[in-house]
Amino acid sequence: MTRIALLGAGGKMGVRLSTNLQRSRFDVSHVEISEAGRARLRDELGIETVALETALQDTDIVVLAVPDRLIGKVARQVIDKVRPGCALIVLDAAAPYAGEMPERDDVTYFCTHPCHPPLFGYETDPAAQRDFFGGVAAKQGIVCALIQGPEDHYALCEEVARTIYAPVVRSHRCTLEQIAILEPALAETVGATLCQAMREATDEAIRRGVPEAAAIDFMLGHLQIELSIFFKAFTDGQFSEGAIQAMEEAKPVIFREGWLDRVFAPEAVRRSVVSICNPGHTE
Fold first, then answer.
1. pTM above 0.85, yes or no
2. What is the mean pLDDT of each run of 10 residues along the chain (283 residues)?
3. Domain boundary among 174, 209, 236
């Protein structure tokens, strides 16, 4: 049986992973340093944690379910305690892309991250419709990258990824650099920032006298159809001439020319991941 050491098992993400791993074929040792996290595992899942040294003995895979800023530190703490051929799985590209992982040629490094349930997933089950994060009831895609290690380790690590993020409908093989482009650049630098701007714009409409419920219904309803047109979920949809004119007039007001290059240039992505892993760091 494949043995997994899950580090950070009692954290917010760790509990999600622990829940899904309970239903898997893997033999899992749970490691959690905080008393609150250990209590959460015990009370919610009936899981008892073990010491780090015990979990790492002859383990096949180490899953680092810890914050980005701690991944490098934790990896350096365990790298000399794992056997040759062990695979370390990180749940975000930031730390490995920023060069935070310790050098050791005889271990595998693997990165995986959830896409999260899509807006147009066509879920009919109420529980799936309310599973916005994924890993509970709603179907989602995942991205995976074999950073270093033998090719046959990809399938094993992908199986772990499909298990912890289940139910998974699509698994996309990417490079580490491509996952770093997806997050933070695409999903956070652009996506989350624009979402924040749309919320601020909605609040401004409310401040100018539009009833709050009306503003929120109007914005969310229009976002659904606008996104469905741009992402081709609503293949028969098209924008009116007035909407097209409004967009053309708004883009130079809202966006600075060349913003895509400033966000997605390799040096910009690297600066972003270094900042995420080392808050306050400047180059």
1. yes
2. 97 97 97 97 97 97 96 97 98 96 98 96 92 97 98 98 98 98 97 98 98 98 96 91 97 96 96 90 53
3. 174
